[in-house]
Write a structure and sequence with these properties.
There is one protein chain. The chain has one domain. It is built from ten helices and no strands. The chain is an all-alpha fold. Helix 2 packs antiparallel against helix 9 and helix 6 packs across helix 7. The N and C termini lie far apart (about 45 Å). About 75% of the residues lie in helices and about 0% in strands.
Length: about 230
């Protein structure tokens, strides 16, 4: 239910943005975009400092980036979104950009991870709050980038839905440390999104996503093994 509400609010916000965006001047759209990215940066910074093991975060980011580059996740997603854009939409450029930005922004971060986990355990409050925030931001993002923002609900539904469904089965291994470090790595990725949006860096954020899979491996496998070897 938490993910369904989240998706519904993004769709509603995108529809409003598609209508209202035509009424906004380009200079006003750019000002709003800068303001949103600054807020995203603050969210990322505040979340990233919660880690209890910075070496773990660094290791996950480095290993994850290598995996992402080898798999070319960013390139594959871009090609997919461009294919959809060319087939169904006349205006080029905005669909792929909006889809990639919104997908990464809404799927990555502490609220998406922790909220989906708690939703799977019966508490939907975090995803309800996230849905409200996503819905508001989608109004402005869809006004800037178009309908591609609304299509981001597909990866959101798959990503958050999968975490939610798996939460019950994984309840025994979801230690506070694992959830905390997942949130920290997610926050670092949010910082990358914000810096991209402010055009301060040119990062392929999607190629960094495997870092979220590396964290459980380090926490559940590497650290216990290390403790046994050097106890």
């Amino acid at each position: 239910m938490g993910t369904i509400v989240n998706v519904a609010l993004i769709i509603a916000g995108s529809l409003i943005g598609l209508w209202a965006g035509k009424l906004l001047k380009e200079s006003l759209q750019k000002a709003v975009l800068i303001a949103l990215n600054l807020c995203i940066l603050v969210i990322g910074v505040s979340g990233s400092i919660k880690t209890e093991n910075m070496l773990l975060v660094i290791s996950a980011m480095v290993i994850g980036s290598i995996i992402g580059e080898l798999l070319d996740i960013d390139g594959r997603l871009n090609r997919l979104s461009l294919k959809i854009e060319k087939r169904y939409f006349k205006k080029e450029g905005s669909f792929a950009q909006g889809f990639m930005l919104a997908s990464c922004l809404y799927c990555i971060g502490a609220m998406a991870i922790v909220g989906s986990l708690q939703s799977g355990l019966g508490n939907h409050d975090i995803l309800y709050a996230k849905g409200l925030l996503d819905g508001v931001s989608s109004v402005f993002l869809s006004g800037l980038y178009g309908i591609g923002v609304m299509f981001s609900v597909v990866p959101i539904l798959i990503y958050q839905g999968a975490i939610t469904l798996a939460a019950g089965a994984l309840a025994d291994v979801l230690s506070p440390q694992l959830v905390n470090e997942l949130s920290a790595v997610g926050s670092v990725l949010i910082i990358a999104i914000a810096l991209n949006g402010l055009e301060l860096i040119k990062a392929k954020v999607a190629n960094l996503l495997p870092a979220l899979l590396v964290v459980p491996f380090i926490v559940l496998v590497v650290l216990p093994l290390w403790a046994r070897l050097f106890a």
